[in-house]
Write a structure and sequence with these properties.
GO molecular function, one term (chains A, B): thiamine binding
Pfam families (chains A, B): Ykof
Radius of gyration of chain A: 16 Å
Order of helices and strands of chain A: EHEEHEHEHEEHE
Protein name (chains A, B): Thiamin/hydroxymethyl pyrimidine-binding YkoF putative domain-containing protein
Helix content of chain A: 25-40%
InterPro entries (chains A, B): HMP/thiamine-bd, MTH1187/YkoF-like, Thiamin/HMP-bd_put_YkoF
Strand content of chain A: 25-35%
Shape of chain A: globular
Structural class of chain A: alpha+beta
Strand order of the largest sheet of chain A: 2-3-1-4-8-5-7-6
Number of strands of chain A: 8
Oligomer: homodimer
């Protein structure tokens, strides 16, 4: 199971280079378990699925210090058949939460809710917008819209649901809860061994007014 | 066939609000044919599939004036079964290029190459990174990885292919050619009536060095 993300930080400030470079130490605790590559468009992190969201959270919170309006975008994937079929660095920790479940959707919703209940509070409010893409036919009865609707049911009860928009769903709340909720969406929906991708945008300190 | 995009602009500058507001007139020629809604995370444009990429191109080029490092991100979708089943505003213009084809993949690659050959040159170099997601089983023999590989074959011959990365592909070149290439990827690959999504990032004026 190959899993990872292409992540980018967009600090809306003249000193964006310094802000980005100054935030990178937030990834240090994760470096031993990740493969990391950077170019001018994004930074690739390859690692176990349950490590991806805490790493993105800590990076984005670090880059959003001092009230900078900063957006993180990530293209997150697991199980892509076009990547190498498996990678030791992506193997979930034994006994850990793993990367999916064969349980029925309602049971997975309850598991996800139990996990987000213990999310840490980090003191940084964020707004997130994401799309979940379960790819491939999946012979095991996982229909892609059923998985999406199951995930939306979880999101509505997560404590940080924002609203449904065309093509995506928004979340709003403390970064701890929002990233924990995103992790559960990634880990528990879609076929457990199937190809799943997320298109994620997280914004902090936007000056725009929010109606919702 | 419901089609549209959630688009966001990220000018990496202190005066990002003015830059964004100053670029919006680039959408004026498209407004009569689009439904447009904005919140603090993105702007939704709903309209015919062949209009989406020229509109995003003109908006991004306008926001990237004066050498500002500016990124556009878009979540683009057609045929999502969770949206209203069809919308008059999304109907391709009669006789136009439409939004898909039942021709075999090699024929669609040739059509796409013929179309990008007439792309306008705009004088703004951009780098793009995107992922193409053909969703749903699609009973008509459209296997999602076959469509992705067919699209990659087209991209490699488009004149702006950058490189394959994990989870995405990069393009580099004049904004005219890059957005025309992206449009062809969206219009010609994946089942013509199926659910197709793109996760797109386009960057202008990055100070980072590019090895590729």
């Amino acid at each position: 199971m190959y899993s990872g993300a292409q992540i980018s930080l967009y600090p809306m400030a003249d000193n964006f280079v310094q802000i980005i470079l100054g935030s990178l130490s937030a990834l240090d605790p994760y470096r031993p378990r990740f493969r990391i590559e950077t170019d001018d468009l994004s930074t690739l992190i390859v690692g176990a699925p349950q490590d991806l969201f805490p790493a993105m959270r800590d990076l984005h919170v670090a880059a959003s210090r001092n009230s900078v309006h900063c957006v993180l975008h990530a293209t997150i994937s697991r199980g892509c058949p076009g990547e190498q079929p498996s990678s030791a660095i992506c193997t979930p920790i034994a006994g850990g939460r793993g990367h999916g479940s064969t349980a029925p959707i309602p049971a997975r919703v309850e598991e996800a809710l139990a996990n987000v209940a213990s999310a840490p509070e980090l003191g940084q409010v964020v707004a997130a917008q994401f799309s979940l893409y379960p790819l491939g036919g999946g012979g095991s009865g996982h229909h892609h819209m059923d998985e999406i609707y199951g995930c939306i049911d979880f999101l509505k009860r997560s404590g940080c649901f924002g609203r449904a928009k065309n093509f995506c769903t928004t979340l709003r709340g403390d970064a701890g809860l929002v990233f924990a909720t995103l992790a559960e969406a990634f880990l528990r929906f879609g076929s457990p061994d199937g190809h799943l991708a997320i298109d994620l945008t997280v914004s902090a300190n936007s000056p725009s007014k929010v109606d919702a």
